[in-house]
Amino acid sequence: MKKRHSRLALTLTLGATLTLTATFTPATAYPEGPTSRVDNIHCSSLHGGLAENGLPRPNMTRSDLAEALNTTSNLGDISYLLEGISGHNYAGRLADRAVACGIVWKDPQEPLPAIRGFQLLSQLLSS
Asked: Which helix (H) or strand (E) holds 46?
């Protein structure tokens, strides 16, 4: 009877511990997967990690950063929070996060082809 009582106490203790751990552990403490880790990396962590790797360069745009990160086999070199994530697969998302954090510039917007054609025609006619 004593063994059975101690097993029950142990089971109840473990159950209570797991319940308390699940209750007090924020969901964002352990993001679900690589996409969530990339999308939610703290701006200061991203900026510091990029700076340690010589990035961003002056006037760097989102596309420039994505291109530079695309060859990185492990984004863990940028931040331990990104350990095991391939730059090839997540370079664009990480560059988007860098734009959102104000670390790099947005890509310049190209005018619509029709507007660009009209601008060229206008220049030709005015000369």
From this structure: helix 43-52
Q: Are 87 and 70 in contact (CB under 8 A)?
A: yes
Q: Are 31 and 37 in contact (CB under 8 A)?
A: yes
Tokens of 97: 């996060």
How far is it, in rounded angstroms, from Cα 47 to Cα 102?
A: 9
Please write the tens of the pLDDT for every residue from 70-101.
877 678 878 887 888 888 888 999 999 999 99
Tokens 């025609």 map to which residue?
121
pTM: 0.60
| Contacts with 104 (C-beta within 8 Å, 6 or more apart), sequence order | 56, 60, 61, 62, 64, 65, 95, 98
Helix or strand run (H / E) with residue 117: helix 113-126
Structural domains in the chain plus CATH codes: 31-119 (1.10.10)
Torsion over CA: 80, 84, 88, 90 (sign): negative
